[in-house]
Amino acid sequence: MVPGRSGLAEAAESWLAGQSVAIERLRSRATHVGSEGSAVVAIHGDAGAGKLRVAQWIHRCSSRSGNPLLVLDSDDPTLKSQLDRVIRVIAARARGLSSNPARTPGTLVLRNWDRAEEPALARLFEILGCQGVELVCALVLISKRSADQIRGSSTLHAQLLARAGGSVVSVPALRHRGIDIQELARHFANEAARRYDKSIRGISPQALSKLEAHDFPGNVRELQVMVEQAVLRSTGDWVTGESFWGLGEDSPLAATEESELVIRLPGSSLREIEIQALRLALKLAGGRVVRASELLGITRHALRRKLEKFGLNDLRVTNESSTSTTA
């Protein structure tokens, strides 16, 4: 059972999109684990890699996908009382006493389960024990730590991992699926454009190249946030490199000679072209506004307004007033 297009969007928000070997293996593994009906699944991976999205994918592949997916966190002080409510709901469902079986969780996801205390872990075993023969609610346990690292935390941790058996899923970091960055970035850009009602044609090729060269220690979550912020900053049809803060200062306008610019389209917004033209004129004029304005064919007052507008006043020489008087 493989999620359809709508299921993929809801279950994984396309965090699992891509053509890399690493992500194809992950999709195959998650689909298999979900469809075989494992009662306990352990997922581990770096922060921001998409562990919760994998849990959503597994739930969508299961026979319980019509029931809700419930996400809890071990750091939540109300965790034990929430688990008690889940036990009551599942027990009632198992005895045929549930007034609304469709509201029973089909999958319970516990984040940071390596930090769960023994009373909470004991309640997880109660959830498994009160279901009878039919699997009503599976447990998906999420952590940044691997199964080997967690196994020694407590006897109950080890026992839950024993129940998981081979249903342990490792989520690769984005650095291991670099060829997926462009596809993920395009999806996140389209998603942000819809959310914030921005009209864009896409991300420029130069900006995509910059993204591919970035390290992304925060993994897919960092990429998503970075693209979303860039979409919000963008002012033209294309989200250009200028909108991606922290990706270097390279511009889609490349200098081939000291007095020549090559403009690449698509990818160069009018704002970028104007800024680079101003930078080049000031460079050729040695920072003198009067000379730079002559090169650009505008008045020095107009040039000063543009420098103020784009925050380029630091490129002017300090003795501008004396230079202007002499000129």
Automatic annotation (TrEMBL):
MF (Gene Ontology): ATP binding; sequence-specific DNA binding
Nucleotide-binding keyword on record: yes
Keywords: ATP-binding, Nucleotide-binding, Transcription, Transcription regulation
The Sigma-54 factor interaction domain, residue ranges: 16-232
Residues spanning the signal sequence: none
GO BP, sorted A to Z: regulation of DNA-templated transcription
Domain of life: Bacteria
Protein name: Two-component system response regulator
Protein source organism: Enhygromyxa salina
